[in-house]
Amino acid sequence: MDNAQIAKALEEMAELLEFRGENPFRIRAYQNGAKAIRELGESVAAVLSDPERDLAKIPGIGKTLVEKCQTLVETGSLPQLEELRKAVPAVVIQMARIPGLGAKKAVKLREELGIESLGDLRKACQEDQVAGLKGFGKKTQSAILDGLAIAEEAASRIYWSQADGLARAISDHMQKCKAITKMEWAGSYRRGRDTVGDLDLLVVASDREAAMDHLATYPDVSQTIGRGETKISIRLDKAFQLDMRCVEEDEFGAALQYFTGSQAHNIHTRKIAKEKGLKINEYGVFKIDDDTKIAGTTEKDVYEVIGLPWIPPELREDRLEFKLAQDGKLPTLVELKDIRGDLHMHTTATDGTHTIRDMADAAIERGLSYIAITDHSKRVSMAMGLDEKRLRQQWAVIDEIRNEYQGRLTILKGIECDILEAGGMDLADDCLAEADWVLASIHYGQKQPRDQITERMIGAIENPNVTAIAHPTGRLLNRRPAYEIDMDQVMAAAKQHGKFMELNANPARLDLNDLHLAKAKALGIPIVINTDAHSIDGLDVMGYGIIQARRGGLVAKDVANTQDWPELKKLIDVQH
DNA sequence: GCCGTTTTCGGCCCGACTGTTTTCAGTCG
């Protein structure tokens, strides 16, 4: 079992324990343990099998969780988890996904009314049975009926890029409200997570009612879920939720810090405050003994009074940021303006919609100094992938065009060469050797067993003509999981053979993810952030990759294409 | 279940809102 699978098992333990009404701190301990393992930069199985190492030394993992990990690694399952699965019926878990229903009420509904399906629940509501239960009422009953529709729509997380579109449109709308003097987005959107589950908006307003009224008039609002003196929650089309919170000017920094999260980051922040005799809430930082307020206007103040520098939102996951902050070693994260080139894009030769010249002109407009044309190789027949002959023809064209762009843009002869199902590269080595830039990637045989697909990937890394691995895990957010691949082995091989790894900036990919990027950085593997553009517009996704890179803690020098091509070329030669 | 330059027991971040209550539990973030 790999770390992700172990973490998932522990998370499920936490979820199920919640339904059993367990001690909340025990539940959190399982969540913390799962997080620690998911973010651990090395394999749990490897640590366990090394007599020199002790898994319990990792914060959040104690004696009990070590035993659980051992059982999971050795047997692939966990008896306590199996028992809990039997003890907590699936329908209870389904019911708890309905907004407004949680573990306690879901359990009660099943026990008191014998609900065994969401259909039963709907019927019970329609027959007015729910409103009579203690702790329930008419409003809860009708909220459940509304919620059933939402639960069935499975309001999933949306891509960061989609959240960004919504947020920008809503910002435009809210700016028309004169009562609002300050506004900022918070939550996982501000932290730049690859997907976003809801939007959090923070405002300072001279008239709170007016600000809330204004939000409620946004055209896509389908429902107001709740509204109080300081907060309004609405549902946008497709069940997506937005919370807006109104605060005072001198609370804005504290509120922004608070609502940006993550939850784990906030818990850690407040623990540090508490140790200093301070208390942090969304209104400010206060002395515990006499309740004096000592900060709150800006986020910077909030961090400073507990002895920390301001921490970039992308790093606020309670991973390494507190240690880095305390040691004064917070990185200056990479920015979009640092990017000099784009090393993955397609043209009309395969499945792109624009020509080499179109892409070159668009790259110049975007301030780039070099691009690599990397069309598909022949195995990707659906995209009319290139064989050696057609590829060499394309390169001949590039040779001709290069002169036109001399001094403005360097156009590199590249290829995105498939790693074949049986292993090996899709194009002959003598051909690949003529390229300036060779990406290797997997498009077929994605469901192969772990050992096989890992071996294929490592085979490509060992090929001296390959420069970088493109979209190394193959994941498509919300659509397709990553390949079953041993990234520890893949990264070790990349390190050994001096290969680059791609951060594919396509908002549905963002592959490598933040944790893999952090690991690659720790190993010293150079990252290239590429758009994988299939059209001119596709070049504009670079920013999404930058945010992901920031979440991985990358600085400009960790990203190879922040250098100009001559320097990058030298780096390639040294690496190989 | 984890953790400990006060502790191996007794803490564990903090508050808004709702609906059902009549002082609070449940849910959410």
How would you characterize the overall build of this protein?
The protein has 576 residues and is α/β, with parallel strands linked by helices. The protein has five domains: 3-87, DNA polymerase beta, N-terminal domain-like (DNA polymerase, domain 1); 90-153, DNA polymerase, domain 1, CATH 1.10.150; 158-247, 2-Layer Sandwich (Beta Polymerase, domain 2), CATH 3.30.460; 260-326, DNA polymerase, thumb domain (Beta Polymerase, domain 3, 2-Layer Sandwich); 336-575, Metal-dependent hydrolases (TIM Barrel), CATH 3.20.20. Helix content is 44%, strand content 14%. It contains 24 helices and 17 strands. The strands form four sheets. Strands 11-12-13-14-15-16-17 form a seven-stranded parallel beta sheet. Strands 2-4-7-6-5 form a five-stranded mixed beta sheet, sandwiched between helices. Helix 18 links the parallel strand 12 (370-373) and strand 13. The mean pLDDT is 91. It binds one DNA strand of 29 nucleotides through residues 23-30, 32-33, 59-65, 99-105, 134-140, 143, 187, 198, 200, 226-231, 233, 243, 245, 258-259, 261, 263, 266-271, 273-274, 279-283. This is DNA polymerase beta. Residues 53-75, 93-112, 128-147 form the Helix-hairpin-helix DNA-binding motif class domain.
